[in-house]
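user: Kindly work through both lines:
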Amino acid sequence: MLADADLSLDLPKQEAERRLKAAQTRLLDLRLRLGGQIGDAIGPPFCVLFEGWDASGKGGAIKRLVDPLDPRHVRVASIAAPTPDELRHHWLQRFWPLLPGRGGMTVLDRSWYGRVLVERVEGFASKRAWKRAYGEINAFEQMLHDEHLVLVKVWMHISDAEQLARFEARRDDPLKAWKLTDEDWRNRAKRAEYEAAVDDMLARTSTAHAPWTVIEAESKRYARVKVVETVADRLADALAR
């Protein structure tokens, strides 16, 4: 549950820099092993999925995650609203082409969880459809697990007050104002509804093979370190198995 997250967590600057560099170096080594560039075997498909509040630092965390990696060895995909053609198909269909193959790595900036978050809260999916989606998502992820895909699911969490402060900072910075839209403000006005949707999502779709990791992101330094260390730990475990 979101209420269980300790948003006071932080790291001193020098410790954060040291741990981030160490985690990035470790991740680079693991990524080369995953792809067979080091060693004599190719590892499983590896996918990192990011969800979180607007302005919670997803972009900054993804940047630190992929910075040490060869661009040829990782794919980053940002998920937007479905196109009219995509709406003609089953709602999960559009995500299949983004998934990595054996030895591959993909990072998703938002994902199929939009079905039980924005589509639920904004009414883009019927109540019957988004309630059914929990089972569809669990079955989808179970199928991926059975095919040996390793899925790391991250929720970037910040408080209401911190989100407002970041919104206002973006609004007042000419070089960052483009990041803030009217839709962001509308979503923020429904924070309570989104919190209920997130708690339902965490409770109903965190499984042994695809658990959620809530990243306490009030401190950007702490969040970036925890993201890279978490991903490296999951990748090391996958390769060991």
Q: What stands out?
A: The radius of gyration is 18 Å.
